[in-house]
Design a protein that fits this description.
Length: 339
């Protein structure tokens, strides 16, 4: 693996008027590159595997656009909020409508993906990045403090813990937005996906949830047994799969397997997981870690989170957090090798 020495490196790019920094973690079996911009998981390599497993770019400037969400921690409220507004204790809050002028996506244009986080801890096996969001940022209430710890917790295993506290009632729903391709190929051809979910959330033509909670049984969204994904397969995926109605201890919920047999097992504490197959994505001039264009179906976004539009859907698991309290969200990525 030809990556920089373990540690922290300042890059020529800037964010929030400060240099973006790269943090390298390595425990001998897994090597990770993080960026302070967006707390991005920029690159992940396994010993003996000759390609990156995350879709991204060695050029940090590509994460300003078009890769603005790739690998980032998105929030403070991930996914879509219908109409760019929601009510809290009788007060309507207006958010940045950064998707088509009508919908708030991933906290707005100035969400956590676009901010330069601070390095609090950087060791060979773990790093903690922190961020403060003042009251009213993006229209969301409460002074919030966030800490994201990436830790190499064992062979071929990376764990992310996001801790967030607020001094006033607000909504908090972060999600890691890494895109995964286990074969190092231009698209997801040859991959299979299994999701331990009995229900999913249907969406309308604008990708907003309708409010219905539908059974996967008998539908195109039944991934309880492994199924092929990628170009030429249906359905096109940008949907939330329901895992529970409460946050809980991390449970393995999903397996993505490449054509060569390398598998990614995802565990999470969250009640849902958004799956996006990037079928219509156009990376423009951006190049991936192998120097190739980043195009349609390049990877699978696996985003453990609360259910979309929860601030406007009282029947969905709540993402409300009271003032003076904190939440903890955990995602674990474990790889298993063929044979």
């Amino acid at each position: 693996m030809t990556q920089p020495t373990v540690g922290v490196t300042a890059l020529p790019q800037s964010c929030d008027g400060r240099p973006v920094q790269r943090v390298i973690l390595d425990n001998g079996s897994i090597r990770v590159a993080l960026l302070t911009r967006g707390a991005i998981l920029q690159d992940l390599r396994l010993a003996g595997v000759p390609h990156a497993l995350t879709v991204g770019s060695p050029d940090a400037s590509a994460y300003q656009d078009p890769l603005r969400y790739f690998g980032a921690i998105v929030g403070p409220v991930a996914n879509r909020i219908a109409g760019g507004r929601a009510r809290l204790d009788g007060i309507e809050h207006q958010f940045d409508r950064n998707e088509g002028g009508t919908t708030t996506l991933h906290g707005g244009a100035d969400g956590t993906h676009a901010r330069n986080w601070e390095i609090d801890v950087a060791r060979a096996d773990r790093a903690t990045l922190t961020l403060a969001l003042p009251d009213g940022t993006g229209g969301f209430p409460g002074n919030r403090t966030i800490a994201a710890q990436y830790a190499l917790t064992g062979p071929d295993t990376l764990e992310l813990t996001v801790m967030a506290a607020t001094d006033a009632a607000t909504w908090i729903n972060f999600a890691p937005h890494g895109l995964w391709n286990l074969d190092g190929t231009p698209d997801l051809s040859g991959h299979t996906l299994r999701i331990a979910s009995d229900y999913y959330l249907p969406v309308d033509e604008t990708a907003l949830v309708t409010g219905a909670v539908a059974k996967v049984a008998g539908s195109a969204f039944d991934f309880r047994d492994p199924r092929p994904i990628g170009p030429g397969t249906l359905p096109v995926l940008d949907h939330n799969f329901c895992l529970s109605r409460v946050r809980r201890a991390p449970v393995e919920v999903l397996t993505l397997t490449g054509a060569g047999g390398l598998a990614l097992h995802v565990s999470t504490s969250e009640p849902g997981v958004q799956i996006y197959d990037a079928a219509g994505f156009d990376g423009g001039a951006a190049r991936d870690h192998a120097g190739s264009p980043i195009g349609p179906g390049c990877g699978l976004a696996i985003e453990p989170q609360g259910w979309p539009d929860a601030p406007n859907r009282p029947g969905f698991p709540s993402v409300r957090v009271e003032g003076g309290t904190a939440v903890r969200q955990i995602t674990r990525w474990r790889f298993s090798r063929p044979g």
